[in-house]
Amino acid sequence: MAEVASNGGQEGALVEIENLRVWFPIKSGILLDRHIGDIKAVDDISLTIRRGETLGLVGESGCGKSTVGRTILRLYEPTGGRIVFDGQDITTLNQNQLRPLRRRMQMVFQDPYASLNPRHSVGRIVGEPLRVHGISGKKDTSKRVRELLEVVGLPADAASRYPHEFSGGQRQRIGLARSLALNPDFIVCDEPVSALDVSIQAQIINLLENLQSDFELTYLFIAHDLAVVRHISDRIAVMYLGKIVEISAAAELYDEPFHPYTISLLSAVPIPDPVVERERETILLAGDLPSPANPPPACRFHTRCPYVQPTRCKEDEPPLRRLAPGHVVACHWAEEIREGKIRPKEVTPELVQQVQAAAWEPPPV
Ligand code: SF4
Questions:
Q1: pTM of the predicted model, to two decimals?
Q2: C-alpha 307 – ligand 1 centre gap (Å)
Q3: pLDDT of residue 2
């Protein structure tokens, strides 16, 4: 709980997760009856999402960020830890007990086309949550669908058309209309703009911001790219291989990132000023993300970290600790890196080879 405490306690929290673990078993044998290890997708993380804020959750593909979002909504079962929604512990509620809460928690998916049934009209798709929850009759549902389509900027005649008749951005608007049908408080936006063109991304992000202020929504906004979450997030949490490595107010994270992983990610984000872009230092990461079935010991980032130091990084796990108000980081050497006393190492072909070898060790049997 170091992070929660260092972010100003749980005052105003809508969602709190404490020491959350989500492990997926690896099975072997003809009947898949031998448990030979676990994919540690999420491994002991604590986070608070405050009412009305957007918390950006960022990290490479496979770091566990989507698993966090889905587990908060109880679409995946947590292996350990606690999930609290609006003061109520929902970690072990069964499907019946969860039903009234499901109305208040919704999800928007990355691929709008895959998440919309191609055989159903848009009106049926957007009105489906109302029917499933038995909220309104046929006439009221049609009226509500028209309202929702207008709210997300689609024409009323969209209700009688089918998903394939719309562009990617419009399909994402349909997904948003559906997620708003039950007047939720909290929406997990799982890479909602990653599949869209850059110009359309901006429109959807603006729409999400407008909807947030109109309907007092709280967002967990998941993305693999720090450039995308910059404008929409109030705070940002950075994830690496199942762990949170840094949390900060969004503007501060961009101005002064402390964790080497965040520094590397930000050094790859394009800067619109060509002079600054030419002069700044790009810090490359060696190799791919290691396997979450067999994560490196101590600091999980040590196999790829350009600032890695002998011994401590490989032997002690760095806890999340507070370096500035509301800014926590899990790195033993954050102060020395900030003061320029430790400089990044060059990525050599030997380092890349070492990292790749570490990434694909078989899981323990
Ligand atoms: Fe890099 Fe060491 Fe900090 Fe981990 S603890 S991020 S390996 S410098």
A1: 0.89
A2: 6
A3: 39
